[in-house]
Amino acid sequence: MNEGSEFSLNIAQIVQRLRGSNLHSQIERQAKDCLHRPDIKLESLKEDVRNFLRISGWEKKLQNAVYRELHIQLPPNHPRAPPEHLKEPLAYMRKAQASWEKRVLKSLNSMSTELEVPLARKRPAAEQTELTNKWNEMGTDEPDLSRFRPVYAPKDFLEVLINLRNPNRDSCEDVSAWSHWGLVQVPLSVRDIPQLRKAYSELSLNLGQLGIDDVANIHPDLFENSYVQIGEKVVMEQDSAAAQQYSRRGCPTGLRADLWALILNSMNQPQDEMHYEQLKAGVIQHDLLVDNLIYKDVKLTASNDDYYFVFEDFLYQVLLCFSRDTAVLEHFKYNSATPPKSFIHVGEEEHVVVYPPNGVIPFHGFSMYVAPLCFLYNEPSTLYNIFREMYIRYFFRLHSISSSTSGIVSLCLQFERLLQTHLPQLFYHLRQIGAQPLRIAFKWMVRAFSGYLSTDQLLLLWDRILGYDSLEVVAVLAAAVFAFRAENLMEVTSLASAEIC
User: What residue stretches are annotated with the Rab-GAP TBC domain (predicted)?
Assistant: First the structure.
């Protein structure tokens, strides 16, 4: 395809998606209503309506909606390319992902059989009433979760990634001094330091960075005051693109919630609140096996965290609603994964359905994707919408196998290459004592450092993820942690001591 036809195809896709949206009907209604205004002339109807939509802010809302679509739509591809190539171009990655999905689903179904707990059931009326009454204090309930176990943990997923191989690549090809030092052995292209410096130029210490004290040539207070003023203007302008650019150098604490909502184009409209209430009703009416996995995960992770234990109720509310949200299935159009399907008994009949309804089986640590957001949003429907948008843009890539530059495979490779290139002695030492660096850093990366950094530091990291629309900085930070602790790590003699260090 030439560049012109690609551009036209992108426009057509965006128009088609927006045409069925609530925003389209709102703009259409506003355009019709403005026809009764005295300043709308018949001879200049088109221009007058456009001016009205621009002045009243609807044009800006449309621009933000288009900007969102540009960030989540399928990558450009040949019109005759099979659908699976759009999701993931490499066949061996697709095969590995499919195999992993079967394994996870088998584990879930086995749990259902062994524990004699149905995948889904309708709650009795008394149970529905009880759950409705305690909706805002679910953390006080202590169901017996001893029989339930996480379907998988990050370390299980890491073993799958370690065994990934390209069947078309000769193991003798591209042999270099460190090519076989690392655990991940797939030929994906990742950036080196000069390329990273160019791509992330706004992170240069020559520029003011929120959260860093040693700002060159600028007094920290002076920089922060002027920077906050710019942020206030960005929020006032309600421009998603400007908010994204601004967040590359960190978001002020008082503006972060508004800036993130603007970047994600998640403004919590009345229809969003209604959708949340419908999901809540679904939770109250039906009990799912995965609900127990969510309860168990929150108890094992966030409830034991000094920063997040106070948000236990919020986590249950958001994650239980998320598991039932079929709108999440949309992201499987550009996710290498496929939503799992299982047999559900409805009356006397058995039906094959996507299970859970959102197509996402939670794993150990999943609730930590939500926990930091609780510091920013205290209204459940707003918190829910922000989390869902963060998940379908970024977090899904951390637990699915793909060749994406923001995918977990590339992040692992990026991390190992940076260490091998710039700290080869440290890498070799850790490898020799059986403490492969990736085994330590993987759990950090798969959770985007949630639970491993203090919340203020974590939110500064997530500012950059949103600002650059990439998870690449997660791998760079993981390598930086090793660089920072290199002297101590050179003294350790085992994996256990390396992890403590």
Answer: 250-469
Q: For residue 28, report the phi and psi dihedrals to the nearest 5 degrees.
A: -60, -40
Which residues 6+ apart lie within 8 Å of 4 measured at CB? none
State the residue for tokens 């065994």. 163
Q: Residue 195: count other Cβ atoms within 10 Å of its Cβ.
A: 11
Q: How far is residue 49's CA from residue 444's CA, in Å, rounded to a whole number?
A: 51
Contact 393, 72 (CB under 8 A): yes
- The strand pair at 120-122 and 286-288 is best described as antiparallel
pTM above 0.85, yes or no: yes
Alpha carbon distances (Å) from 70 to 18, 76, 267: 12, 11, 18
Give the pair of three-digit tokens for residue 414: 């990026």
What is the rounded distance in angstroms from the CA atom of residue 64 to the CA atom of residue 468?
17
In angstroms, the CA 361 to CA 400 distance is: 12
Residues 210, 351: Cα–Cα separation, whole Å? 53
286 DSSP β-pair partners: 122
- Can you give the C-alpha Rg of the chain in angstroms? 24
Amino acid 131 reads L
pLDDT recorded at residue 318: 96
Question: Angle 312-322/289-300 helices, nearest 10 degrees?
Answer: 150
Q: How far is CA 421 from CA 172, 177, 179, in A?
A: 20, 10, 10
- Residue identified by tokens 């006032």 is 236
Residue type, 397: R
- DSSP letters spanning 355-373: SSTTS----TTGGGGTGGG
Say if residues 426 and 419 touch (Cβ distance below 8 Å). Answer: yes
Element containing residue 180 per DSSP (H, E): none
Greatest alpha-carbon pair distance for the chain in Å reads: 82
How far are the Cα atoms of 239, 319, 436, 479 from residue 494, in angstroms, in the given order? Answer: 51, 37, 10, 19
493 pLDDT higher than 60? yes
Q: How far apart are CA 422 and CA 477, in angstroms?
A: 14
- Residues 127 and 134: their CA atoms lie apart, in Å, by 11
Mean pLDDT score of the chain, rounded to an integer? 86
Angle between helices 437-446 and 424-432 (to 10 degrees): 100
Residue 52 · residue 37 · CB < 8 Å: yes
Helix, strand, or coil here: 239?
coil
CA–CA–CA angle 78, 83, 88 (5° rounding): 90
Tokens describing residue 156: 């299980």
Which tens digits make up the pLDDT trace of 270-290?
888 999 999 999 999 999 999
Helix axes 270-285, 312-322, angle to 10 degrees: 90
- pLDDT for 468 beyond 80: yes
